[in-house]
């Protein structure tokens, strides 16, 4: 049973560029959440997708957007990258209304 | 009011000892309190979680103590082992586990 898978594992971009990160949820899960984890900090909630719609959003600007596909996989898009966007981006999946979140190993984004 | 405060920032415990990590929250709407363990290069993994209708929950060597009136909860790791060396995060959310607010993390080192 594959867990949450994310791609790519590492990514280097320059300021002003755009990036797309991908996530496949754990088998049977229908809800995907994205978190940003800065170095030495706890993860911060970006948004959650369920039934292909954004259901909840954290305190992140509109440069951060996402999408969920009919097979429940998801993408996180970040436009106009800033140096401060450098972080580990974590995808987590769950069942809607469920308690347990399962995290992937993340995508390490470096913005130069 | 969304903050979760975690202490200590780092902790060194001898093998066989008890590791204790504390968290405090402000938002009275929080009603789900999980603890996550994170190893370098990996995403957080759920260890144990509690809801405020109980004051303690034990799973193996891991115990959560919860004090609703003080808005505090703690993780106790009994018989700490070198394999427990990792970063531990407390978290909280209103309702389900999707929109978690994480603490800043505690780096635990268990020495021989």
Describe this structure in a few short sentences.
The complex is a heterodimer of chains A (112) and B (112). Chain A is mainly beta.
List the helices and strands and how they pair.
The complex is a heterodimer of chains A (112) and B (112).
Chain A: E1 5-7, E2 10-13, E3 19-24, E4 31-37, E5 44-50, E6 53-57, E7 64-68, E8 74-78, E9 87-94, E10 102-103, E11 107-111
Parallel strand pairs in A: 2-11
Antiparallel strand pairs in A: 1-3, 3-8, 4-5, 4-9, 5-6, 7-8, 9-10, 9-11
Chain B: E1 4-7, E2 10-14, E3 19-25, E4 33-38, E5 45-50, E6 56-59, E7 62-67, E8 72-77, E9 86-92, E10 101-102, E11 106-111
> What is the radius of gyration of chain A computed over CA atoms, rounded to a whole number of angstroms?
13 Å
String of helices and strands of chain B: EEEEEEEEEEE
Rg of chain B (C-alpha, Å): 13 Å
Structural class of chain A: mainly beta
- Unreliable spans of chain B are none
Oligomer: heterodimer
Tell me the β content of chain A: over 45%
State the shape of chain A. globular
User: How many extended strands of chain B?
Assistant: 11
The counted number of beta strands of chain A is 11
Q: Helix coverage percent of residues of chain A?
A: under 10%
Largest sheet of chain A: 7 strands, mixed
If you average the pLDDT of chain B, what whole number results?
94
Q: Please give the alpha-carbon distance between the first and last residues of chain B.
A: 40 Å
Number of helices of chain B: 0
Shape estimate of chain B: globular
N-to-C CA distance of chain A: 37 Å
Low-confidence stretches of chain A: none
Give the overall average pLDDT of chain A.
95
Structure class of chain B: mainly beta
Q: Proportion of β residues of chain B? A: over 45%
């Amino acid at each position: 049973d594959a867990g949450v898978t994310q791609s790519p594992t590492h990514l280097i971009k320059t300021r002003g560029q755009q990036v797309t990160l991908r996530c496949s949820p754990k088998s049977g899960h229908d809800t995907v959440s994205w978190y940003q984890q800065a170095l030495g900090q706890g993860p911060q909630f970006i948004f959650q997708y369920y039934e292909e719609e954004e259901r909840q959003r954290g305190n992140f600007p509109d440069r951060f957007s996402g999408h969920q596909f009919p097979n429940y996989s998801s993408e996180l898009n970040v436009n106009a990258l800033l140096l401060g966007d450098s972080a580990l981006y974590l995808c987590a999946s769950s069942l809607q209304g469920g308690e347990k979140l399962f995290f992937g190993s993340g995508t390490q984004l470096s913005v130069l | 009011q969304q903050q979760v405060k975690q202490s200590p920032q780092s902790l060194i415990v001898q093998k066989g000892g008890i590791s204790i990590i504390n968290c405090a929250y402000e938002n009275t709407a929080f009603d789900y309190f999980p603890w996550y363990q994170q190893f370098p290069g990996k995403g957080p993994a759920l260890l144990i979680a509690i809801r405020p209708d109980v004051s303690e929950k034990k799973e193996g060597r891991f115990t959560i103590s919860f004090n609703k009136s003080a808005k505090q909860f703690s993780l106790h790791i009994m018989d700490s082992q070198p394999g427990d060396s990792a970063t531990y995060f407390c978290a909280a959310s209103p309702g389900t586990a999707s929109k978690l607010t994480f603490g800043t993390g505690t780096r635990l080192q268990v020495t021989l």
